[in-house]
Amino acid sequence: MAITFQHLVQAPDGDTKIAGTGIRVYTILGVYEVGETPEYIAEQRDLPIPAVFEALAYGFEHPDEMEAMRRDNEAAGHWALSQLPEELRRQAEQGLQEQEQARQEAIRQTREARHGALVL
């Protein structure tokens, strides 16, 4: 029996999004990973909570698709950086590297905090 999604659609560009919003599952998963709660995500983006949970479930069930999106975003970022003058490019790359380290640390801390958390 196939399960259909109530809140998700496959967009023409290939991304899985929350229907009627243009918000990618990849985006929802990313902000969840760094510590936002599903309720906060829904509130900040004016989404129904079930849509957020559906997006999270889809994202966790499709890690290869999420990884492909990450790689595509990274490639686009590298291309954009390559268009900058050398000194500005180096500064931007350093800033992006620092941001990525901070993101990875936030993900680590969030996973650690959620690891033993009681799910209600």
The percentage helix is: 55-70%
> What value does the Rg take, in angstroms?
17 Å
Strand order of the largest sheet: 1-2
Number of helices: 5
Task: Note the beta-strand portion.
Answer: 5-15%
Residue stretches low in confidence (pLDDT < 50, at least 5 long) are none
Average pLDDT number: 91
Q: Any idea how many domains?
A: 1
- First CA to last CA: what distance? 28 Å
Taking the sheet with the most strands, its summary is: 2 strands, antiparallel
Based on helices, strands and strand pairing, what is the structural class? mainly alpha
Number of strands: 2
H-E string: EEHHHHH
Question: How would the global form be characterised?
Answer: globular
Write the layout of secondary structure elements.
Blueprint lengths: L7 E3 L5 E3 L6 H9 L4 H8 L3 H13 L1 H20 L3 H30 L5
Antiparallel strand pairs: 1-2
Characteristics:
single chain, 120 residues, two-stranded antiparallel sheet, 5 helices, 2 strands
